[in-house]
Amino acid sequence: MEHHAVTLAVMNHIHGEMKYVEYILFRCLVSLISVIPFRLLYVISDGCSFLMHYIFRYRIKIVSGNLKKAFPWKSRDEIKKIAGKFYKNLCDVALESIKGYSLSPEQIQKRYRHLNIEVANRYYEKGQTIIIAMTHYCNWEWGAQIARNVYKHNPVAFYKPMSNK
Question: How far is CA 10 from the centre of its chain?
Answer without folding.
Answer: 33
